Amino acid sequence: MMGRLESWKLALERLRAAQPADWAEAGRLVAEIVRMSTDATLRQAAEQALPVLRQAADNDDHGVTLAAQRRVGVILEVVHDLTAPRFGRRNAMPKQLSSEDRARRMLGLPLAVQLTCDDINQAYRRAAKGKHPDQGGSAQAFIDLAAARDILIHPGAHKDA
């Protein structure tokens, strides 16, 4: 896909720089983008430009030509955004949470705050109301909540899973 984007980018830049512009060729290129692009934003920009480019190919009206140039510019901006290098670790797996952090999430407690036993027990009671088997919850979810409370109350007694 990146190779196709690069070729479209070059072709669009060539069309934009040409004097006079070949609007029939621009229409063919944009129609190809509409058919083959997997990116919704690019496809939408190309679909919106297509009627203007076809109109520019049929007549020499200066206003239509300016509108066509703007539409090609919009498509080119979208292609530039798609081909720009991205920084950071895009497909990196998220950092694994410690058992204590997983327990805090399960009980709806903040991750970086010092907790008292009362805070933990209150959060456990709040969460257990909906998870208790007598209240329509599952037994396993209730057991998991109890384990989460134990992990938080006795943090050194449990190893990271």
UniProtKB/TrEMBL annotation:
Domain of life of the organism encoding this protein: Bacteria
Signal peptide per UniProt: none
Organism field: Bradyrhizobium japonicum
Cited PROSITE patterns: DNAJ_2
Limits of the J domain: 102-161
InterPro entries cross-referenced by the UniProt entry: DnaJ_domain, J_dom_sf
Protein name per its UniProtKB record: J domain-containing protein
